[in-house]
Known about the structure:
Layout: H1 13-27, H2 38-46, E1 50-53, E2 56-59, H3 61-67
Antiparallel strand pairs: 1-2
Helix pairs in contact: 1-2, 1-3
Amino acid sequence: MTDNQNPFADFDLERAIALRWTLRDIKGKRLKLSPVSESDLSTLTNLGLVEMRDDVPVLTQAGHDALD
Length: 68
């Protein structure tokens, strides 16, 4: 994946890693063990990586692609 395709390119390394872990937690349905912060959820939603379905965050296809 090049920087043009990397949705985390504009974030510092620590923030990018935290957002990727949040995506993994959402994908793995580990939200009770690792609740998603409103800030992270808002950022991932604005990037188009996560959407809300029945008040539960789920990955979009772009979110899955970001983890591959």
